[in-house]
């Protein structure tokens, strides 16, 4: 469902991706870990078509090197900061894409669908007419998740889904992601540095290090690896092969 083949990306003289190669099978949940500034978000943008790799090939949901406007019909995205539209009520945020373009829903159908998806992430119908500023951080994440699944897309991307949340709410969001990915049979890629997310969400794990996928394996193996780079990162050690000053 998702494939990256020898992906390279540089910004000026800074080489960020140096040959990332991987694939994600249908229904599989891949978690990508790595330190700050290692290129996780750049990789995600290349998969979404928001950035073009300088070299290499991307395939998502059967589309080769897709443009974001076309890919949007097959992909749901939960952004790190929820990225809700402040001037729109919650229900319009959730149904935003489905009210535009060919086959768009009318207002009544869009609102009904939004209420349905809000219920799926544990939010009541009374939330639909609120504005993002009236929501807590955890509620905003849930609204962002409802928007991501609004069209039942076959592919889901999650960018630091638990960033800024307390441990309890982070666990709630992780559980929702796992349930929804399984329920939809979706293929998912999650970017995170939260080891709880690795454990709760991932089937497989890839570590982005020095521009490549340094390590790939199961989530269980990732958390118990003897590899010095993996162990330093997963255990949060200050000493090891990964420089602590960036």
Query: Would you report the number of β strands?
Result: 10
Mean pLDDT reading: 92
Look at the structure and give the CATH class of the largest domain. Alpha Beta
Oligomer: single chain
Q: How would you sum up this structure, described in words?
A:
The protein has 246 residues and is α/β, with parallel strands linked by helices. It has 2 domains: 1-74 and 154-238, Rossmann fold, CATH 3.40.50.300; 84-152, no CATH class. 33% of the residues lie in helices and 25% in strands. It is built from 9 helices and 10 strands. It has helices at residues 40-48, 68-71, 90-94, 107-120, 137-148, 167-184, 195-201, 219-223, 228-235, and strands spanning 2-11, 14-24, 29-33, 55-60, 63-64, 75-78, 155-159, 187-191, 204-209, 212-218. The strands form 2 sheets. The chain has a 6-stranded mixed beta sheet, with helices on both faces. A 4-stranded antiparallel beta sheet has the order 2-1-4-5, covered by helices on one side. Strand 7, helix 6 and strand 8 form a beta-alpha-beta unit. Helix 4 crosses helix 5. The longest helix has 18 residues, at 167-184. The two termini are 34 Å apart. The mean pLDDT is 92.
Q: Which keywords apply here?
A:
246 residues, alpha/beta, Rossmann fold, 2 domains, 6-stranded mixed beta sheet, 4-stranded antiparallel beta sheet, 9 helices, 25% strand
How would you concisely characterize the structure shown here?
With 246 residues, the protein is α/β, with parallel strands linked by helices.
